Each structure stands twice: as structure tokens, then as C-alpha cells.
Amino acid sequence: MSELPGGWITATLGDVAESILGGGTPSKNVAGNFSGDIPFMTVKDMKTSRPSDTQDKITNEALLSSSSNLIPAGTPIVCTRMGLGKIVVADFHTAINQDLKAIFLNQDVIHRDYFEYWYRSIAKELVAMGTGTTVKGITLKQLKSIELPVPALNEQIYIASKLEDLLAQIGSIKSRIDELPSLIKRFRQSVFAAAVSGRLTAEWRLSNLEQAIELDELCDVPKTRRGVPDTVKFPEILDELEIPNTWVWAPAAKLLKKGILLDLKDGNHGANHPKTSEFSAEGLPFITAANVSRLGSIDYLNAPKISGDALARLRVGFSEPGDVIFTHKGTVGRVAINTKECVLTPQTTYYRTNKKILSNEYLWIFLQSDRFQIQTNEIKSQTTRDFIPITAQYELFHLIPPIQEQLEIAKRVEFLFTISNELEIRIDNALKLLNKLPHSTLSKAFQGHLSADWRTANPSLVSGDNSASSLLSKSKGQTLTRAQSINGTEKISKQAKGLPMAKGIIKISAALEAAGKPLSGQELLEAAGYPSDSGIDSLESFFLDIRESLEEGAIIKLPRDEDSQDWFAISK
Q1: Confidence band for 367, pLDDT divided at 50, 70 and 90
Q2: Residue 82 has pLDDT above 90, yes or no
Q3: Whole-angstrom distance, CA of residue 195 vs CA of residue 527
Q4: pLDDT, tens digit, 9 for 90 and up, residues 497-518
Q5: pLDDT score recorded for residue 496
Q6: In this structure, is residue 43 part of a structural domain?
Q7: What whole-number distance in Å separates Cα of residue 568 and Cα of residue 523?
Q8: Range of the domain at 531
Q9: Mind telling me which residue stretches traverse the membrane in this protein (predicted)?
Q10: Coil, strand or helix: which one is 210?
Q11: How far apart are CA 564 and CA 378, in angstroms?
Q12: Most confidently modeled of 250-259, 471-480, 520-529?
């Protein structure tokens, strides 16, 4: 532990806890154990620092017949197995399972909120302490031996309040920054929409008059791939979309027949498709949909590689630099411009353009626009999986402006995307810093930096009888006195815990003495005068009495019987 400010001391968790109580799980073989109304907390309920409820509920009988304990509301509960580093405080009484421990703090020495923040700050250290082959855990001895910095109680209260404010501010800023990536995504979509509607270049067209492409005047190419249709019906979903009068709609089939698209093809299907065992560390990148990023780049480095006989067996799908890659299966709609020779899988299609008439950069924009996506969405809605086969791609309509306007559109989109990309990088860097800030703030707090000015301004609140060392010394003396006195004249009473004895209820030790023999938990509940349908508050009073009596040595817990019940007896 780093050097502490004057007046601070180092203590162990065992020093500042009056007791640490574990739990257990009622038998799931007993019908009805999990059909009650008593909250039963496990690691799965610790997703937030202030859980509002538990997924499981148990009965009074299940609680009494198991090693679980009912923990009072407001008590810190930590994971010692499976979720190391987690700590929660519930505002309701709850039973706990064997993976959790309830820490009953000495409130004269340690402030609960201060303790909770400190415990969160050492989460990584707790994980590192864990041992176990499949599930990591720490022992009670390890938990008690963990050291923590302890300032005066008044300073703890100030630190906890300061941390609450600072962490809330960090959280608020992070929430606002977290919204920015979705705003950037919407901005990019609006840029695509403006680009393919003509709005982005509306003013440019006024001073740059061009003629529309006359597709019917272009000669047909001698040959196209098999399956390209001669005619395609114009889809109704595009009927009402307005376009500039120099732009034309055309299906991919017609663009292929007129030589505007030089080729459109996916990868090898069937027997020619490489087997997993045929991929190697070197060779031609084999591009899957997963290798095409949302932002339009291709991950050649991590793509599978293919060479040798497996490569020689392939017949189609060889993509050239400049091809526009479209993912059409599994993840549909990602688009990138290829920069290296590669081969495609059946998940990806390349579009090879005649750049004198159709810019590949403009096509990259169009394939990501709403005017193309409404067509692909229509196809996907008619299938049980995301898939746009080549035959369907032949029938998708493309919006073609004159070539100079295509180039102008591409230039303007590139400019706007450069700005958004730079902004995204800054946001990403800001988020990385913000994600580190809570931990660094906690570290500063427990090194004394956050409260340095407060200590200087309030010397009387951190010295003398108010000092941490004085409070801890007094507490240790009181704890020793309690341990030496079986009658426990200074013990923590139920009245002090807000759980008074009900009329007709007697002490656990008195009930065992009167019985003259060991009793099971269920029998002891009845012998002490608790009703069989006791509510959570009454059960908490019962368990608190058992815990205190065990700590004082007034009673002992016997080995569990064949039915897994706890038995109790008077100490000899």
C-alpha cells in the first residue's frame, strides 16, 4: 500500500468488521424450497450496486434447514467466488448463498459508503487473488487479511460524499459521449441519403450541365454470365422516389449487358469451396463477410488464406483491386472497396465497374444508401435468413448520375466522412480516458488526495479521540470485552439493530436450556416462541440472535445431519 497521509492508518478488513457471515443453498431436491417469498441472493443478482430484488425466493423452512443466513437490509454483500470484486448493498433483507459473504462493519470505525467505494477500487486485486481451476475464489482468511487505508470517520464520510459527486459527474459525461457514435452513424446515413437523392450536388448541377446516360443507345456486350435476366420489372417501392432529371434507374442485369458493370460474382459454392483444413498461414486472402468492417475496410491480415491445390481448384470469385465488395449472406449490407488481389467466399460479392461510366467510389456510396437498402430489405423480409443471392442482386436497381456528378458526389462524401472519422477517433479516445477516470479517481481518494484540503480545514475532526487510530483502539477493546463476556453486557442488541423481540419470544440460549437437548433450526425457531409463519423481520431477529449467541460462545453449532439441517446446543 502506498504511503498514507498523516493521521491515516492501515487496517485489515477483519479489523473493521464486527463479523463476516456466509451463506448456503437450500436443497433443490426438496419440493417447495424455492417457492417462498424470502429473497435469496446469488452472484447473478449482483449486476448493479443496488439490486432491487433477487431472481430466486425461498421459504422459511428452506432458510432454516440450510446454512443460508438472512442478511439485514443495508449490509454490504461481497462475492468470494465466481464474481470476485463485486459488492452490493440491498435495501431489503435477503438470504445469501455460499458464494457470498455479508460484512457487518464496525460503524464506529468504518463508514459503509467509504468501505464500498474502497472495495470497488480493489476489484482487480481481488480477481488476481482468486484460486481454483474452473471457478476462482478467495477464502474467508484471505478476505479478512486484505489491508485497507482508514482515515478518521469524519474524513471517510467526506470522501464518500465527494466520490459520489465526482463519479456521478463522470457517469453523466460518459452517458452523453456514449450517445455520440449513434449520432455519427445517423450523420453518415444522412450523407448517403443526400448523396443519392441529388441534394448533395443540387447547386453543383446548376453550373455543371450534363446529359443523362442513354442506356438504350449503348451496345450490348457480347456475353454475360449465365442467369442474367434480359428484363427486370421496376419495383413499386421505388416509384415515388424523386430523382434529378439527368439520373437514371437501371437494374444490375442491364448494367451488366451494357458493359457498365463488367462483372458481378460471389465466391465458390459446393465441392470447390475450400475445407477448413486447407487454409494456411500464407496465400491469397479468402474474404468472408466477417472480414468486411462496418466502416468499409477489409481485414486482409486476419482473413483465412488459401494456396496450392485448394486455390487451383477455385474457378470464380477472384476479386481485383478497385472492385466494390458487398456482403450478401449472414451479415448483409457491408460494403468496401477492394485494394488487394483476393478471393471471395459465397458470403461476399464483387461489383467490377466500367469506370468511364460508373465510379466505384459512387457505387460504394449507393450500395450503403437507403435507396438500395429498401430493396435488399424487401428481399430479406421474404426469407427466413439474411441472404441476397446473386440471382436477386441481378434484379436490384441502381441509380446512375452522369459520371462527372458521380465523381463530385464521391469527393463531397469523402470530405464529410473525413470529418466524421476524425470526430469518431476523438470520441473513442475520450471514452478510453473516461473509462479509466473512475478507477484513477478512486485511487486518488484512497491515497488521501481528494480530502487533503478538507483535512487542513478540519484538524479537530481527524485528531485526538476522532482519529482513526483512537477509534480502532477503542473498537478492539470493546470487541475483546464482548468476546470475554458470555452474557455479553456490551453486545449489539436487537433493539439497536431495529429488530426488537416480539412478545412471547425468548432468547435462543434460554430456549436450548429449557429443551435440555440439541435442537434443529426448525425446532429452535418454535422453541424460542417464533410463529411458524414468521415474516422476514422476525426471521432476521431469530438469525441475529443465533449469530450473536455463537459469537459469544453461549451456544455451539453441531455437525449437520443426513437431511443437511443445522443443529444447535448449549455450550458445556
Answers
A1: very high
A2: no
A3: 82
A4: 333 444 468 888 888 887 888 8
A5: 29
A6: yes
A7: 10
A8: 493-572
A9: none
A10: coil
A11: 61
A12: 250-259
Which residues, 6+ apart, have CB-to-CB distance to 172 below 8 Å? none
Residues 387 and 508 grouped into a single domain: no
| CB atoms inside a 10 Å sphere around CB 136 | 17
The structural domain count of the chain equals 3
Which SS3 state, helix, strand or coil, does residue 43 take?
Answer: helix
Using a 10 angstrom Cβ sphere, with 0-12 exposed, 13-18 middle and 19 or more buried, the burial of residue 24 is: buried
CATH number of the domain within which 148 lies: 3.90.220.20
Q: And the C-alpha cell for 57? A: 425466493
Q: What is each CA distance from 431 to 182, 438, 502, in whole angstroms? A: 14, 12, 55
| Cα Rg of the chain (Å, integer) | 36
* CA-based end-to-end distance of the chain: 44
Q: Whole-angstrom Cα distance, residue 412 to residue 72?
A: 64
pLDDT of 109 over the 80 cut: yes
Residues 6+ apart with CB under 8 A from 270: none
Residue 422 lies inside a defined structural domain of this protein: no
Closest listed residue to residue 90, CA positions, set 77, 108, 105, 99: 77
Claim to verify: residue 257 and residue 353 sit in the same structural domain: yes
Stated as kind and residue range, the H or E segment containing 94 is: strand 94-96
Provide the strand spans (E) within 308-347: 318-319, 324-327, 335-337, 342-344
The model's confidence at residue 487, banded by pLDDT at 50, 70 and 90, is very low
368 in the same domain as 499: no
3-state secondary structure (DSSP) of residue 547: helix
Q: How many helices (H) and strands (E) does the chain have?
A: 19, 23
Continuous H helices in 149-251 = 153-178, 180-197, 202-207
Say what the pLDDT of residue 477 is.
Answer: 54
Looking at the structure, tell me whether residues 294 and 350 fall in a common domain: yes
Give the mean pLDDT of 53-70. Answer: 92
Find the angle CA(103)-CA(105)-CA(108) to the nearest 5 degrees: 180
CB atoms within 10 A of CB 216: 7
Strand stretches in 474-561, DSSP E: 519-520, 555-558
Check if the beta carbon of residue 567 is closer than 8 Å to that of residue 518.
yes
DSSP label of 465: G
